[in-house]
Amino acid sequence: MRLPWDRLSSKPAPKPAAPPARQLSIEGETVELVIARHRLARRYVVRVADDGTVRLTVPRGASIAGGLRFAERQTAWIARERRRQRERAAPWRPGQPVWFRGETRPLEINAGGFVVGGEVIARGRATDGRAAVQAHLRALATRELPARCLEIAAQVGLKVGRVSVRDQKSRWGACSSRRVITLNWRLIQMPPSVSDYVIFHELMHIRQPNHSRKFWREVASVCGWWREAEKWLRRYGREIL
Length: 241
Fold this sequence. Notes:
- By secondary structure, this protein is of the alpha+beta class.
- It folds into 3 domains: about 20-90, no CATH class; about 95-135, no CATH class; about 145-240, Zincin-like (2-Layer Sandwich).
- It has helices spanning about 65-75, 75-90, 130-155, 190-205, 215-220, 225-240; strands at about 20-25, 30-40, 45-50, 55-60, 95-100, 105, 110, 115, 120, 160-165, 175, 180-185.
- The strands form 4 sheets. It has a 4-stranded mixed β-sheet. The chain has a 3-stranded antiparallel β-sheet with strand order 7-8-9, with helices on one face.
- The radius of gyration is 22 Å and the shape is flat.
């Protein structure tokens, strides 16, 4: 949230200091490690940015040295994540497996455009199927997911303020204090039962804005298959997200 200025100053505001950077050795390659403290962080967290750099979040009061040791223990995961990102950035060619409604379907390319699971997508100016297919699936999700969320909300007797579909990078959905449900467009790539579970999950946060035992009891009362859905997400979710 941006805070308003209290008063005007004749002196320019100092530039914020850049987070300190260190280096890690990942599969024989020297990788930049950007270190940043966060006052709300409760533990060390390592993330790989889209450009391949690695970011280490350090909780307030925790030691940088401890964070470096933590990051060094994560080098195998970091290497896998960097390989996964390179694979995701590679051009899509014929036969590329694409998740759609819970199954991987081979990408077909013909004179008419791209075909995935019976969905025909115009080629336009695209030479790589990735952007065209993902844009098509996102548009499909934008049409289908809000209606499905409102349908499920009515089934469980809940009122929703609004439903939006976004391109979230690290979560499947969210529920705000104003009853705004946000869903990841990639739910369209899951089995319908798993997508429904994510929707039930977010709706139950209207009743319980936490992940307490009461919350999980609410989930179980409306979605008896939630454990199976969680297993599917743990097994295949990373391939989609």
